[in-house]
Amino acid sequence: MKQFKGTGVAIVTPFREDGSIDFKCLDKLVNHLIDGKVEYLVVLGTTGESVTLSKDEKNAVVNAVIDAAEGRVPIVLGMGGNSTQSVLNSIAEQNFEGIDAILSVSPYYNKPSQGGIYEHYKMIAGASPVPVILYNVPGRTSSNITAETTLRLANDFDNIIAVKEASGNLEQCMEIIKNKPRRFLVISGDDTLTLPIVAAGGDGVISVTANAFPEDFSEMVRRALKGKMRGARELQYKLFDIMQWHFADGNPGGVKASLNALGICKEKVRLPLVPVNDEVRKKIRELVKNY
Protein backbone atom coordinates (compact mmCIF):
# COMPACT_ATOMS: atom_id res chain seq x y z
CA MET A 1 0.00 0.00 0.00
CA LYS A 2 3.06 2.26 -0.09
CA GLN A 3 1.92 3.76 -3.40
CA PHE A 4 -0.75 5.66 -1.43
CA LYS A 5 1.63 7.11 1.14
CA GLY A 6 2.48 10.77 0.61
CA THR A 7 0.45 13.26 -1.40
CA GLY A 8 -2.54 12.38 -3.48
CA VAL A 9 -4.40 15.18 -5.26
CA ALA A 10 -8.17 15.45 -5.57
CA ILE A 11 -7.98 16.92 -9.04
CA VAL A 12 -10.41 19.57 -10.26
CA THR A 13 -12.41 19.17 -13.45
CA PRO A 14 -11.63 22.18 -15.68
CA PHE A 15 -14.56 23.69 -17.56
CA ARG A 16 -14.80 26.07 -20.50
CA GLU A 17 -16.95 29.18 -20.22
CA ASP A 18 -19.86 27.33 -21.81
CA GLY A 19 -19.69 24.71 -19.04
CA SER A 20 -18.23 21.90 -21.14
CA ILE A 21 -15.19 19.98 -19.92
CA ASP A 22 -11.86 21.49 -20.97
CA PHE A 23 -9.81 18.40 -21.74
CA LYS A 24 -6.79 20.41 -22.91
CA CYS A 25 -6.57 22.07 -19.50
CA LEU A 26 -7.16 18.73 -17.78
CA ASP A 27 -4.13 17.33 -19.60
CA LYS A 28 -2.13 20.40 -18.57
CA LEU A 29 -3.20 19.95 -14.94
CA VAL A 30 -2.25 16.26 -14.83
CA ASN A 31 1.23 17.04 -16.13
CA HIS A 32 1.55 19.98 -13.73
CA LEU A 33 0.84 17.61 -10.83
CA ILE A 34 3.14 14.83 -11.99
CA ASP A 35 5.93 17.33 -12.69
CA GLY A 36 5.32 18.57 -9.13
CA LYS A 37 6.15 15.06 -7.88
CA VAL A 38 2.86 14.14 -6.24
CA GLU A 39 2.51 10.46 -5.42
CA TYR A 40 -0.92 9.77 -6.93
CA LEU A 41 -4.05 11.34 -8.44
CA VAL A 42 -7.68 11.10 -7.31
CA VAL A 43 -10.22 11.62 -10.08
CA LEU A 44 -13.98 12.25 -9.69
CA GLY A 45 -13.82 13.25 -6.05
CA THR A 46 -15.66 16.11 -4.37
CA THR A 47 -13.15 18.63 -5.73
CA GLY A 48 -13.72 17.24 -9.23
CA GLU A 49 -17.41 18.21 -9.04
CA SER A 50 -18.32 14.63 -9.87
CA VAL A 51 -21.94 15.04 -8.76
CA THR A 52 -22.57 17.47 -11.64
CA LEU A 53 -21.01 15.26 -14.33
CA SER A 54 -23.05 12.92 -16.50
CA LYS A 55 -22.11 9.25 -16.77
CA ASP A 56 -20.52 9.83 -20.18
CA GLU A 57 -18.60 12.85 -18.88
CA LYS A 58 -17.29 10.85 -15.93
CA ASN A 59 -16.01 8.13 -18.23
CA ALA A 60 -14.40 10.71 -20.50
CA VAL A 61 -12.65 12.43 -17.56
CA VAL A 62 -11.35 9.14 -16.17
CA ASN A 63 -10.00 8.09 -19.57
CA ALA A 64 -8.42 11.49 -20.15
CA VAL A 65 -6.61 11.40 -16.79
CA ILE A 66 -5.37 7.84 -17.37
CA ASP A 67 -4.12 8.79 -20.85
CA ALA A 68 -2.40 11.95 -19.62
CA ALA A 69 -0.77 10.18 -16.65
CA GLU A 70 0.69 7.47 -18.93
CA GLY A 71 1.25 5.12 -16.00
CA ARG A 72 3.58 7.53 -14.20
CA VAL A 73 1.51 7.64 -11.00
CA PRO A 74 -1.30 5.54 -9.51
CA ILE A 75 -4.89 6.63 -10.16
CA VAL A 76 -7.65 6.51 -7.54
CA LEU A 77 -11.27 6.73 -8.72
CA GLY A 78 -13.95 8.41 -6.63
CA MET A 79 -16.88 6.00 -6.50
CA GLY A 80 -19.49 6.42 -3.79
CA GLY A 81 -23.04 7.46 -3.11
CA ASN A 82 -26.03 7.23 -0.81
CA SER A 83 -27.51 4.14 -2.46
CA THR A 84 -25.46 1.02 -1.80
CA GLN A 85 -26.96 -0.81 -4.77
CA SER A 86 -26.20 2.08 -7.11
CA VAL A 87 -22.56 2.02 -6.03
CA LEU A 88 -22.44 -1.74 -6.59
CA ASN A 89 -23.96 -1.26 -10.05
CA SER A 90 -21.32 1.37 -10.87
CA ILE A 91 -18.55 -0.98 -9.74
CA ALA A 92 -19.96 -3.78 -11.91
CA GLU A 93 -20.08 -1.49 -14.96
CA GLN A 94 -16.69 0.20 -14.46
CA ASN A 95 -13.64 -0.64 -16.57
CA PHE A 96 -10.87 -0.74 -13.96
CA GLU A 97 -7.98 -0.85 -16.40
CA GLY A 98 -5.60 1.89 -15.24
CA ILE A 99 -7.38 2.32 -11.89
CA ASP A 100 -5.40 1.36 -8.78
CA ALA A 101 -8.00 1.93 -6.03
CA ILE A 102 -11.36 3.53 -5.35
CA LEU A 103 -12.17 6.29 -2.87
CA SER A 104 -15.68 5.77 -1.57
CA VAL A 105 -17.46 8.46 0.42
CA SER A 106 -19.68 7.46 3.33
CA PRO A 107 -23.39 7.61 2.38
CA TYR A 108 -24.67 11.16 2.57
CA TYR A 109 -28.11 12.61 3.35
CA ASN A 110 -29.54 9.23 4.52
CA LYS A 111 -27.67 9.57 7.87
CA PRO A 112 -27.18 5.80 8.34
CA SER A 113 -26.28 4.27 11.70
CA GLN A 114 -22.79 2.89 12.27
CA GLY A 115 -24.21 -0.54 11.51
CA GLY A 116 -25.55 0.73 8.19
CA ILE A 117 -22.20 2.31 7.31
CA TYR A 118 -20.43 -0.97 8.11
CA GLU A 119 -22.81 -3.01 5.94
CA HIS A 120 -22.51 -0.48 3.09
CA TYR A 121 -18.72 -0.81 3.00
CA LYS A 122 -18.91 -4.57 3.49
CA MET A 123 -20.84 -4.80 0.22
CA ILE A 124 -18.40 -2.48 -1.57
CA ALA A 125 -15.38 -4.42 -0.28
CA GLY A 126 -16.92 -7.63 -1.61
CA ALA A 127 -17.62 -6.14 -5.03
CA SER A 128 -14.54 -4.04 -5.76
CA PRO A 129 -11.75 -5.62 -7.81
CA VAL A 130 -9.32 -2.95 -6.56
CA PRO A 131 -8.48 -1.72 -3.04
CA VAL A 132 -10.96 0.55 -1.26
CA ILE A 133 -10.18 3.80 0.58
CA LEU A 134 -12.91 4.91 3.00
CA TYR A 135 -13.81 8.60 2.90
CA ASN A 136 -15.11 10.19 6.10
CA VAL A 137 -16.30 13.78 5.60
CA PRO A 138 -19.08 14.53 8.12
CA GLY A 139 -19.34 18.16 7.03
CA ARG A 140 -20.73 16.94 3.70
CA THR A 141 -22.41 13.65 4.63
CA SER A 142 -24.07 14.66 7.93
CA SER A 143 -22.80 11.46 9.56
CA ASN A 144 -19.44 10.51 11.02
CA ILE A 145 -17.68 7.18 10.53
CA THR A 146 -16.55 6.61 14.10
CA ALA A 147 -13.07 5.36 14.90
CA GLU A 148 -14.64 2.12 16.11
CA THR A 149 -16.38 1.52 12.76
CA THR A 150 -13.26 2.44 10.74
CA LEU A 151 -11.16 0.02 12.80
CA ARG A 152 -13.76 -2.71 12.46
CA LEU A 153 -13.75 -2.34 8.68
CA ALA A 154 -9.94 -2.18 8.58
CA ASN A 155 -9.66 -5.43 10.52
CA ASP A 156 -12.45 -7.32 8.76
CA PHE A 157 -11.62 -6.62 5.10
CA ASP A 158 -8.13 -6.91 3.62
CA ASN A 159 -8.99 -4.82 0.57
CA ILE A 160 -10.13 -1.86 2.69
CA ILE A 161 -6.68 -0.35 2.85
CA ALA A 162 -7.07 3.21 4.13
CA VAL A 163 -9.31 5.99 5.33
CA LYS A 164 -9.34 9.56 4.12
CA GLU A 165 -10.17 11.35 7.37
CA ALA A 166 -11.80 14.75 6.85
CA SER A 167 -13.63 14.86 10.17
CA GLY A 168 -11.34 17.61 11.46
CA ASN A 169 -11.15 15.59 14.69
CA LEU A 170 -7.50 14.96 15.56
CA GLU A 171 -8.44 12.84 18.56
CA GLN A 172 -10.45 10.52 16.30
CA CYS A 173 -7.55 10.34 13.84
CA MET A 174 -5.12 9.45 16.62
CA GLU A 175 -7.45 6.74 17.96
CA ILE A 176 -7.48 5.14 14.51
CA ILE A 177 -3.69 5.48 14.13
CA LYS A 178 -3.10 3.95 17.57
CA ASN A 179 -5.29 0.89 17.03
CA LYS A 180 -5.24 0.20 13.28
CA PRO A 181 -3.70 -2.83 11.58
CA ARG A 182 -0.14 -2.11 10.44
CA ARG A 183 -1.10 -2.31 6.75
CA PHE A 184 -3.92 0.24 7.06
CA LEU A 185 -3.26 3.88 6.09
CA VAL A 186 -4.67 7.03 7.68
CA ILE A 187 -4.79 9.82 5.10
CA SER A 188 -5.61 13.43 5.92
CA GLY A 189 -8.60 14.93 4.14
CA ASP A 190 -7.93 18.42 5.51
CA ASP A 191 -5.06 20.38 3.96
CA THR A 192 -4.32 22.46 7.07
CA LEU A 193 -4.30 19.40 9.35
CA THR A 194 -2.01 17.28 7.19
CA LEU A 195 1.18 18.05 9.08
CA PRO A 196 -0.30 17.34 12.56
CA ILE A 197 -1.88 14.10 11.31
CA VAL A 198 1.39 12.90 9.76
CA ALA A 199 3.25 13.93 12.92
CA ALA A 200 0.81 11.78 14.90
CA GLY A 201 1.59 8.78 12.69
CA GLY A 202 -0.61 9.33 9.64
CA ASP A 203 0.46 8.45 6.13
CA GLY A 204 -0.17 11.52 3.98
CA VAL A 205 -2.99 13.50 2.41
CA ILE A 206 -5.48 13.70 -0.41
CA SER A 207 -5.12 17.40 -1.02
CA VAL A 208 -7.01 20.23 -2.70
CA THR A 209 -4.31 22.89 -2.46
CA ALA A 210 -1.76 20.59 -4.13
CA ASN A 211 -3.67 21.14 -7.40
CA ALA A 212 -2.03 24.55 -7.49
CA PHE A 213 1.16 23.98 -5.49
CA PRO A 214 2.08 20.30 -5.91
CA GLU A 215 5.82 20.63 -5.50
CA ASP A 216 5.83 22.33 -2.10
CA PHE A 217 2.86 20.40 -0.73
CA SER A 218 4.24 16.99 -1.65
CA GLU A 219 7.69 17.94 -0.39
CA MET A 220 6.18 19.08 2.92
CA VAL A 221 4.52 15.69 3.35
CA ARG A 222 7.66 13.76 2.35
CA ARG A 223 9.73 15.68 4.88
CA ALA A 224 7.18 15.03 7.60
CA LEU A 225 7.06 11.31 6.79
CA LYS A 226 10.85 11.19 7.11
CA GLY A 227 10.74 12.98 10.46
CA LYS A 228 12.29 16.15 9.07
CA MET A 229 9.80 18.30 10.92
CA ARG A 230 11.64 21.61 10.83
CA GLY A 231 11.70 21.62 7.04
CA ALA A 232 8.12 20.34 6.91
CA ARG A 233 6.95 23.16 9.17
CA GLU A 234 8.63 25.75 6.95
CA LEU A 235 6.60 24.56 3.96
CA GLN A 236 3.44 24.15 6.04
CA TYR A 237 3.50 27.81 7.01
CA LYS A 238 4.52 28.90 3.53
CA LEU A 239 1.34 27.22 2.29
CA PHE A 240 -0.86 27.97 5.29
CA ASP A 241 -2.54 31.22 4.19
CA ILE A 242 -3.32 29.96 0.71
CA MET A 243 -4.72 26.71 2.16
CA GLN A 244 -7.13 28.70 4.32
CA TRP A 245 -8.22 31.04 1.54
CA HIS A 246 -8.88 28.13 -0.80
CA PHE A 247 -11.81 27.21 1.45
CA ALA A 248 -12.97 30.71 2.37
CA ASP A 249 -15.80 30.74 -0.18
CA GLY A 250 -16.24 27.12 -1.15
CA ASN A 251 -14.34 24.28 -2.79
CA PRO A 252 -13.28 23.94 -5.60
CA GLY A 253 -13.92 27.62 -6.36
CA GLY A 254 -10.96 28.68 -4.26
CA VAL A 255 -8.36 26.39 -5.77
CA LYS A 256 -9.72 27.10 -9.27
CA ALA A 257 -9.03 30.79 -8.59
CA SER A 258 -5.41 29.84 -7.88
CA LEU A 259 -5.21 27.63 -10.96
CA ASN A 260 -6.58 30.47 -13.07
CA ALA A 261 -3.97 32.85 -11.67
CA LEU A 262 -1.32 30.27 -12.56
CA GLY A 263 -2.64 29.98 -16.13
CA ILE A 264 -3.71 26.34 -15.83
CA CYS A 265 -7.50 26.52 -16.14
CA LYS A 266 -10.50 28.82 -15.85
CA GLU A 267 -12.40 29.47 -12.63
CA LYS A 268 -15.62 28.06 -14.12
CA VAL A 269 -17.62 25.76 -11.85
CA ARG A 270 -21.03 24.16 -12.38
CA LEU A 271 -24.20 25.20 -10.61
CA PRO A 272 -25.22 25.04 -7.85
CA LEU A 273 -21.61 26.09 -7.21
CA VAL A 274 -20.46 29.55 -8.25
CA PRO A 275 -16.97 31.09 -8.43
CA VAL A 276 -15.53 32.71 -5.31
CA ASN A 277 -16.54 36.27 -4.50
CA ASP A 278 -14.41 39.25 -5.55
CA GLU A 279 -12.80 39.72 -2.13
CA VAL A 280 -11.62 36.12 -1.94
CA ARG A 281 -10.46 36.13 -5.57
CA LYS A 282 -8.44 39.29 -4.99
CA LYS A 283 -6.77 37.80 -1.90
CA ILE A 284 -6.00 34.51 -3.64
CA ARG A 285 -4.49 36.30 -6.63
CA GLU A 286 -2.36 38.38 -4.28
CA LEU A 287 -1.15 35.27 -2.45
CA VAL A 288 -0.36 33.46 -5.72
CA LYS A 289 1.51 36.49 -7.06
CA ASN A 290 3.62 36.79 -3.92
CA TYR A 291 4.07 33.05 -3.33
Can you walk through the features of this model?
- By secondary structure, this protein is an alpha/beta fold.
- It has one domain (2-228): TIM Barrel (Alpha-Beta Barrel), CATH 3.20.20.
- Helices cover 46% and strands 13% of the residues.
- It has an 8-stranded parallel β-barrel, surrounded by 6 helices.
- Helix 2 links the parallel strand 2 and strand 3.
- It is globular.
- 46% of the residues are buried.
- The mean pLDDT is 97.
Number of helices, where a helix is a run of at least 4 consecutive DSSP H or I residues: 12
Largest sheet: 8 strands, parallel, barrel
> In the CATH classification, which architecture applies?
Alpha-Beta Barrel
Query: What count of structural domains?
Result: 1
| Contiguous runs where pLDDT drops below 50 for at least 5 residues | none
Overall geometry: globular
Count of DSSP strands: 8
CATH superfamily annotation: Aldolase class I
The portion of residues assigned to helices is 40-55%
Widest beta sheet: strand line-up: 1-2-3-4-5-6-7-8
Average pLDDT taken over every residue: 97
Order of helices and strands: EHEHEHEHEHHEHEHEHHHH
Question: What fraction strand?
Answer: 5-15%
CATH fold node name: TIM Barrel
CATH class, anyone? Alpha Beta
> Which class of secondary structure composition applies to the elements?
alpha/beta
Determine Rg (CA atoms, Å).
18 Å
In angstroms, what separates the terminal alpha carbons?
33 Å
